Amino acid sequence: MTLRAGESVWIPCEVAPGPFPDERKVRVESPAGCWVGFVDSKLLRDDVSEGRTALLATVVSTGERISARLPGQTPHSGYLTCSASWFQTLG
Questions:
Q1: Which residue of 10, 52, 77, 91 sits 20 to 30 Å from the alpha carbon of 66, by its own alpha carbon?
Q2: Rounded to whole angstroms, how far apart are CA atoms 84 and 24?
Q3: pLDDT tops 90 at residue 77
Q4: Taking every pair of C-alpha atoms in the chain, what is the biggest distance, in angstroms?
Q5: Rounded to an integer, what distance in angstroms lies between the CA atom of residue 88 and that of residue 18?
Q6: pLDDT recorded at residue 14
Q7: Domain ranges within the chain, ordered by starting residue
């Protein structure tokens, strides 16, 4: 799987209820660390209020390491950046 900037990719995540009916608290575990944020439920592969699903992210740069922009409200800055091989396991 070769990713290009601008493409969408599903990132596995854990979901919990958010403060609003159409919002979910999302936790992503990756080799780069943990990302936690609040996202619109429409950005999840499965509209679940709790459990495992995937979050829609946008690839912003490629190479040996790939960076993806995760949507939502979060105190984290920057992008989720991991090795290309980690992203390939998502396909």
A1: 52
A2: 27
A3: no
A4: 39
A5: 30
A6: 97
A7: 8-88
